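Supplementary Note 3. Input sequence used for the single-chain structure prediction.
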Amino acid sequence: MTALSRRAFTAVALAALLAGCGGSPDGRDRAEANATGRSTAERPGGAAPSASGGARHVRALGRSVPVGLRIPAIDVDTPVMRLGLAADGSVQVPPVVAHDRAGWYRHSPTPGQTGPAVILGHVTVGAYGDGVFRRLARLRRDDRIEVRLENGTSAVFAVTSVRTVAKAEFPSDAVYGDVDRPELRLITCGGSRTGDGYADNVIVFAALRSASP
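The predicted structure, written as discrete structure tokens, is reproduced below.
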């Protein structure tokens, strides 16, 4: 990741990430978030998990922009849009619409390149109800994540850990810091409602396992 993109992420620390995640009308978002607990894979002392831990080495792929995302375990199959920086310097998020999509942060590596590719999605979309990453916190170690690329291939990742963290304690280095192999981060909101947003972020860490045509 470039120094510019790292500074951009650090400046906001994703505190405003997915601010448009309005609660679903019946409050199911809070019930499910509480049911999942604070974390499914935190190391003792709160150290950030590494997506590369225990993963076999897989050759990095060439650059190709992601166009689709499929996560069978939680019934996600979505187009992927490109996200950059908003006018105020914060990270863009997908628009709040009825049929929302996930978005790839274009200043991060493309999925399959060396480094952490970052994909964002909403947990809820205001009056429209559930967001594309509604069930992200349900993922477990080794669940499959397929990212369809513009060149016609797919980068296949396996979940290595899932964390729910307070936005004020967002683990910036663990999420977008330099790594020496292809990794993936999926990010959404979580935890209890706080006004127009959520108290926490849910972060999925994954490592590249293979590429398929």
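The first helix runs from residue 3 to 12. The chain has three helices and eight strands.
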